[in-house]
Each structure stands twice: as C-alpha cells, then as structure tokens.
C-alpha cells in the first residue's frame, strides 16, 4: 500500500525537526525519538551531515525518515538517493513541487497565505506545512486562513513549543505540528521529550 503524506502526518502528533551536525549522532538520536514514541523524523538539509544522517536514521527500526528544507530539484534528488521517505519544503513553487508530485513521494510543502494554498490546490495538494507558524500570526492566522479551504490539512511549524503544541493540535485541520524543541542536550532527554510529545492529543 502506498503511504501518503496524510498517513505520515497522522502517525504521531509531533514531527521533530532535526538539525544534525554530526552524522555519528544521527542513529542514537533517531533511536531515542522512536523509543519515546515519535517515528516520523524530519532531517533538515541545512548541514553537511544531513544526507548521511538520513541514511543512518533509516537503519532504526520503526523510523520514517524524511528530508526538510528541500528547496531545489538537486536537493530533492540527493534526499531521495539518501533514502528519504517524504519531502518537506519551507515554501511552495511549481518548480520544486512538480518533480516531487510526479515521483509520488509524500510531499509537505510550506504555505503562509491564501495564494500559497491556492497554488497548492491547483497542483492537487491538500496537505501543507504552515510555516513559519508563530511568526505568520500563530493559531489565529491559521484559523482565518483555513476557513475558506475546507479540504486543507496542516502541520504548523516554526516557533511551536511543548507548551503551545496542544492548542494547535486542538484545531481540527491540524493533523500534527513540527518543532525542533524535542531534541535535548542528551539522548536520554530527547527520549523524555519525545515521550511527552507523543502523548499529546492530535
Ligand atoms: O528548515 C526548514 O525547512 C524549516 O522548516 C525550518 C524549521 O521547520 C523550523 O526552524 C523549526 O522551527 P522551530 O521549532 O521554531 O525551531
């Protein structure tokens, strides 16, 4: 059965957004997150270690590993070669979206206004990352934005914390939230934070 972005967004209430500087840390970090109950992992392509980190994390049983910060066709190809199971981009252009949609890999593009959502709907997309969530007006903005687009579902990301996540998750079109707060100073702390996040109600 084909896994869709909807399936991925409903796997757990929080998608940890990971910035990995040392590929050697990738596997234990993924193990801590999965053990804590968060299986969907977004590795941002912001560091030289990111692609290797994706390949390492794929070795962890139960992990569903995707690439974030994908902004070019070249990065999309690199992310796929590393074994990414889904792709996240901070924004939505037709140039980045077309090849990803054609490849049928689950895709979560960023949107921040009505025009972005309409461009996504034109491309056949209904699931979006609301980014940057807090800076774009927070939950109030998303509620106003979601009203005309009954079919759209969201993963707000950017500025969300353990304290604010429940409020976002209580809004029906929000299937999950993304955030970097899950990663602690140690893998044990990461596991504890993942456990708390996994228990939030989506
Ligand atoms: O790199 C990207 O493509 C991004 O999407 C940015 C991240 O989603 C946010 O930086 C995470 O936000 P924080 O939880 O506030 O740290």
Automatic annotation (TrEMBL):
Species for this entry: Sphingomonas hankookensis
Quaternary structure (record): Homotrimer.
Highest classification ranks of the organism: Bacteria, Pseudomonadati, Pseudomonadota, Alphaproteobacteria, Sphingomonadales
Catalytic activity: 2-dehydro-3-deoxy-6-phospho-D-gluconate = D-glyceraldehyde 3-phosphate + pyruvate
Protein family (similarity comment): Belongs to the KHG/KDPG aldolase family.
Pathway given in the UniProt record: Carbohydrate acid metabolism; 2-dehydro-3-deoxy-D-gluconate degradation; D-glyceraldehyde 3-phosphate and pyruvate from 2-dehydro-3-deoxy-D-gluconate: step 2/2
Keywords for the protein's UniProt record, in alphabetical order: Carbohydrate metabolism, Lyase, Schiff base
InterPro entries (alphabetical): Aldlse_KDPG_KHG, Aldolase_TIM, KDPG/KHG_AS_1, KDPG/KHG_AS_2
Keyword Cytoplasm appears in the UniProt entry: no
Name of the protein in question: 2-dehydro-3-deoxy-phosphogluconate aldolase
Catalytic activity, EC: 4.1.2.14
């Amino acid at each position: 059965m084909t896994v869709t972005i909807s399936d991925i967004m409903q796997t757990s209430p929080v998608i940890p957004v990971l910035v990995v500087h040392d590929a050697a840390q990738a596997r234990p970090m993924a193990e801590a997150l999965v053990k804590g109950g968060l299986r969907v992992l977004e590795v941002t392509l912001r560091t030289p270690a990111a692609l290797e980190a994706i390949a390492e994390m794929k070795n962890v049983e139960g992990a569903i590993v995707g690439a974030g910060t994908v902004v070019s066709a070249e990065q999309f190809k690199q992310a796929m070669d590393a074994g990414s199971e889904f792709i996240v981009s901070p924004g939505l252009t037709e140039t980045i979206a077309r090849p990803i949609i054609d490849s049928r890999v689950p895709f979560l593009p960023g949107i921040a206004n009505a025009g972005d959502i309409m461009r996504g709907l034109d491309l056949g997309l209904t699931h979006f990352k609301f980014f940057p969530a807090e800076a774009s007006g927070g939950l109030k903005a998303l509620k106003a934005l979601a009203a005309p687009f009954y079919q759209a579902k969201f993963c707000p990301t950017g500025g969300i914390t353990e304290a604010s996540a429940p409020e976002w998750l209580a809004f029906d079109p929000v299937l999950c939230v993304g955030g970097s707060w899950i990663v602690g100073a140690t893998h044990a702390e990461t596991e504890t934070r993942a456990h708390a996040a996994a228990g939030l109600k989506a």
